[in-house]
Write a structure and sequence with these properties.
195 residues; mainly alpha; globular
Length: 195
């Protein structure tokens, strides 16, 4: 997998994944969606659409899960009341947006031919994205990297530690996934910029 590139004629954003890579990416996106949705209050589906749009009954306190706290940082750390109000008015919509971007990855991979359960070793998935879809993937890659970095407790300047871990250390393997998602994001940004 060499990352994303822009097709010269169609101008679509293209990437080729092995079946295992595509399944891993789908799993990461699914876990992110589950985390975002399990922590959020589930609205009543019978509500009037305008009432749902105007619902500002979101959470008012910082999430306990460190990943969610990283994805939804406190806007006003020195003003608890303002931070609470800001979170109440914005976090629900932000969660929905992040979940929708992760679902775009899942849908894109499945539309490209990734089966519900991976059973083929030599499967190759060719993904073609319109620009808006590619931008959603890019946003979700940011969220996935933040989630992985938070779980691993990655800090700036600690590369030597990660590269010193033996290959069979599960942390090293997850760090490799973190770097792989970073490569995907970098090539996607370049493709979107037309480089």
């Amino acid at each position: 997998m060499s990352g994303f590139h822009r097709h010269l004629r169609s101008q679509r954003i293209i990437a080729t994944f092995s079946g295992l890579e595509a399944d891993l990416l789908r799993t990461l996106a699914s876990q992110l969606v589950e985390l975002l949705r399990n922590e959020a209050a589930v609205p009543n589906d019978d509500r009037d659409p305008f009432e749902a749009l105007m619902d500002f009954s979101g959470p008012t306190t910082e999430p306990e899960d460190p990943v969610l706290a990283r994805l939804f940082p406190t806007a006003y750390p020195h003003d608890e009341e303002a931070a609470s109000e800001f979170r109440r008015f914005t976090e629900g919509g932000l969660r929905d947006g992040k979940a929708a971007a992760a679902v775009a990855i899942i849908d894109g991979l499945e539309e490209a031919g990734l089966p519900p359960e991976l059973s083929e070793d030599g499967l190759v998935i060719d993904v073609e994205l319109e620009e808006a879809e590619a931008e959603a993937w890019m946003r979700s890659f940011t969220d996935l990297r933040l989630a992985l970095a938070t779980r691993l407790e990655i800090e700036e300047g600690d590369e030597e530690f990660w590269y010193s871990l033996p290959d069979d250390d599960p942390r090293a393997q997850i760090h490799d996934i973190y770097e792989w998602v970073g490569l995907l994001q970098e090539t996607l940004v370049q493709a979107l910029m037309g480089d």
